[in-house]
Amino acid sequence: MFKKLRKLFASRILWISILLALEIALVVIFAYSIAGSFASLFNLDDWQSWIILIVFLYLLSFIIVVYIVNSHAKPAYKITWLVVVAILPLFGSFFYLLFGNKKITYRQRRKIKPIYAMLTSTQIEKSIAEKIKKENFDAYQMANYITKASGGDLYQNSIVSYYPSGEKVYPEMIKELKKAKKFIFIEYFIVAPGIFWNSIFDILKEKVKEGVDVRLIYDDVGSAGYIPWHYDKKLNAIGIKTVAFHKFKPLLDVKINNRDHRKIMVIDGIVGFSGGINLADEYINKIERFGYWKDNAIKVEGSAVDGLTTLFLTQWLSISEADFTQANFFNENYMRFFPTHKGIYGNGYVQPYGDLPYNEESVGERVYLNLIARAKKYIYITTPYLIIDDEIVNALTNAVKQGVDVRIVTPHIPDKKITFGITRSHYRVLLKNGVKIYEYTPGFIHMKMFVVDDIYATVGTINLDYRSLYLHLENGTFMYRCRCIDDMKKDFIDIFNVSEQITYQRYKKYLAPRRFIWSVLRMFAPLL
What we know:
It is a single chain. By secondary structure, the chain is α/β, with parallel strands linked by helices. It is built from 22 helices and 17 strands. The strands form 3 sheets. It has an 8-stranded mixed beta sheet, sandwiched between helices. Helix 16 (390-401) links the parallel strand 10 and strand 11. Helix 3 (46-69) packs antiparallel against helix 4 (75-87), helix 3 packs parallel to helix 5 and helix 9 (166-178) runs parallel beside helix 10 (195-209). The chain is globular and about 80 Å long. The protein starts with a helix and ends in a 5-residue tail after the last helix.
């Protein structure tokens, strides 16, 4: 019992929650203090000061409402926040500023702007563009969008290997890390002590001693339940260059809602890994939390590794102390991270891409919509959370009406019950319009993958929910005519075979009160 209490009080998640609650309490106390001071200054009665306070709060709410209405956010996102602000003038406005506003500070915008400008000014290499345009204009358009919107180059001469579980990619990652001679870049949402991370950590310490440039980015809140305060300082002290993304601070901080949800590992610019797994033991099923944890990863070799390297370095420069200019990114110091790729003649086209919450371009969502729109035969999708707006619902149902076989896999065992309820609340309209939905019965499925018509696929970190699509930093890899797409499709078939298909009749058997609760929760989906 004592050990459990000690562990609880050592938890950063607990203290972050307490500090957030204190922030809210201080805001309330401050508001009432202002009202009291105003009343004393002008010799007002209590009821008069209350009226002034209420008028002030509604004026603040009105300003926030005007801002939300004129923002470029999704309609569903706007509606939810408008309801919250209207019902709770003080708390609603506060919560929007803290959790709903994607704006960042002027200093951050100034640093990120040239990075984003550099990325989105790129063009698909002319020879590759002409080749893919002649072969498949749809593929060219999708790749061209990714290049224009996120700066992700399209590559040939790359090989992608698909791993249908964390435990299968884990030994491959360890093997490649041991080979590192020049540099190792790691960027993950969760870093958690255990078999997985400890084995990587041991290699990193040895590689630092060998003179390898080792850099790590982890999300401070994403890893808060696993690592101690100032973990980055500990790693920096032993030579692992480390940055904790958006450290939690007990202040009103609009950045707290923007998390680095990416999963990238690059070794010497020769090999790169990405996918759904984090660096924690449940992702390789060394511990069990929600049944079997189904996840995936890809290994990239050849030219396309440059895309993962670029994603990491631009993020590193945007959050580290280094000043960013296009000139210093392409100087000799950084060009050493982009080796010449020889002897790799892969099939198909590979395009790593990133998504940022700081602009009006929802790259991850648009990539998904572009894939849905181009489907002729089938679309297979797996996502841990199905919290989508009308645009995606309409795209999926429209594809079905055109004769496309649309299948979506979600978990049967949830990691978050509220989110699971909202996911199921979307079943009704999808099922009614012919979308096939499967729940993965062995446990929790964390994969974020689309496979379309045997020729297109994307694997990455982008969930079908508001956080991934609009608030987090994410990454994915678009593939066209790569051999690994066959392996991805096979994995889907295996998943279907062990999943329960949820029919419309099956959905209607859920108790009416439960369906009603799901519908109510769905109103607040953009907040979760």
